Amino acid sequence: MANVVVTGSTKGLGKGLADAFARLGHNVVITSRRQADIATVTQEINKKSEGQIIGQVCDISDKKQVEALWDLAKTEFGSVDYWINNAGYASGQNPIHKIPENLIHSMIDTNSLGTLFCSQVAITGFRKQGSGRLYNVLGGSFDGKRIIKGMGVYSSTKASINVLTKYLVAENKNTNIIVGSISPGILITENWLNEQKRLSPEAWKKIRPTINMIADQVETATPWIVDQMIENTKSGKRIAWLTPWKIISRVIQAKLFGKKRDLFSRHNPRCSKSRSSLAILNEQGLEPEIRLYLDNPPTAGELKSILAMLNIPARNLLRRGESEYKLLNLADPDVSEIDIIKAMTEYPRLIERPIVIKDGKAVIGRPPEKILSLF
User: Fold this and answer.
1) Are 28 and 42 in contact (CB under 8 A)?
2) Measuring CA to CA, how many Å separate 326 from each of 204, 294, 319, 350?
3) How many alpha carbons fall within 13 Å on the CB side of residue 52?
């Protein structure tokens, strides 16, 4: 059993990594700038995991707060075996000369400065205790090989982390410290969805097929990434989820064999209707991207988008047999659409299932044969 610190871990990739470690029985310290988020996520993960989850508010651009984070992990668990620098901030869709000064500070202070401070604290601690594993999360065009529109400042900060990681590998050679990096690929996180909302409908329609081919849900990638970190014994390794060969394979599957993926399917493996719907999709030669919505509930924005594709009001998506339906008095006709959506995000069991989405259209698989209307 290992002791793990994951920065920026109440949402997105960080939360997924923390959850994957905890499910394997490891102890995890999570961080956020908001105590409320920490309380929610620690309670959520502790309910379904073998490992112990604790959290602390931490602004990683403040080195004293980072040192306090190390002290907490060391005091509570006795050692820190893994330190994962995940906390970061991304803002795209603008050329460099148009990015507001406050956003530039946010990206540089969090991504570059914050990762540097965290690396200093982790390496110092590892040297004192005799061992440890440090991983820095990359992203964007960190190697400068691809120019991604609107991501100039963000990619520059990730490039600095890439160089920082190489120096840390060299400086800690011949020690019991392993330093590596993580390239998670394109994952559908809350931050990604917020950026997506800024696109025009035409722009989103244009890139959506590509996103469906190469992107993944967080819960799909993070268990594999954690397994790779645990298995790795070589400093300098970059753990890459979305490899060039994986991209080529997915493009071939979609273009030549018609096996299209959709990142917006909602699934509960314990539900017979969900299992039957998945079987029908497989019979159609499709391998849908499955989202386990009970573990990774949709945001209000996602639900609104799904309701629009279903062309139904939120009330029609409610499961009326769940205890929360009565507890929240959702049968009351005066409960607003906004309040119903909020209830479903907080209590995802209220969402009817399964939902299958293809090419901008959605169907509830009840009965499962209804999903054939999408083909």
Assistant:
1) no
2) 38, 19, 11, 11
3) 7
Category of 144 on φ-ψ map: left (φ > 0), alpha (ψ -120 to 50) or beta = left
Catalytic residue among 54, 103, 242, 271: 271
What does the pLDDT read at residue 82?
A: 98
Phi, psi for 265 (deg, rounded to 5)? -70, 140
Tokens 């102890």 belong to which residue? 27
Largest Cα span, the chain = 68
Q: How far is CA 149 from the centre of its chain?
A: 22
Q: What is the mean pLDDT of each run of 10 residues along the chain (375 residues)?
A: 95 92 94 93 86 95 98 96 93 83 91 97 97 93 75 88 97 96 88 73 79 82 92 96 87 76 56 71 71 78 88 93 86 93 90 84 86 80
How far is residue 296's CA from residue 52's CA, in Å, rounded to a whole number? 20
Are the C-beta atoms of 83 and 134 separated by less than 8 Å?
A: yes
So what's the pLDDT on residue 160? 94
Judge whether 123 and 168 are in contact, CB under 8 Å.
yes
R_g over Cα of the chain: 22
Single-letter amino acid, residue 71: D
Length of the chain: 375
If we measure between CA atoms, which residue out of 195, 366, 206 comes closest to residue 277?
366
Task: Give the separation between CA 65 and CA 141, rounded to whole angstroms.
Answer: 29
Tokens 């998670």 -> residue: 184
Cα separation, 237 vs 232, in Å, equals 8
Closest CA to 275 of 262, 265, 260: 265
271 is catalytic: yes
Query: What is the identity of the amino acid at 192?
Result: W
CB 325 within 8 A of CB 318: yes
Q: Which domains, ranges and CATH numbers included, belong to the chain? A: 3-246 (3.40.50.720), 262-374 (3.40.30.10)
What's residue 136's pLDDT? 98
- Confidence (pLDDT) at 260: 65
